Amino acid sequence: MASSLTCTGVIWALLSLLCAAASCVGFFMPYWLLGTQMDKPVSFGTFRRCSYPVRDEERQITVMVEQCGRYASFHGIPSLEWRICTVVTGVGCGLLLLVALTALMGCCISDLISRTIGRVAGGIQFVGGLLIGSGCALYPLGWDSEEVQQTCNNSSDQFQLGSCQIGWAYYCTGAGAAAAMLLCTWLSCFAGKKQKQYPY
Question: Which of 84-93, 105-114, 139-148 has the lowest average pLDDT?
Answer without folding.
Answer: 105-114
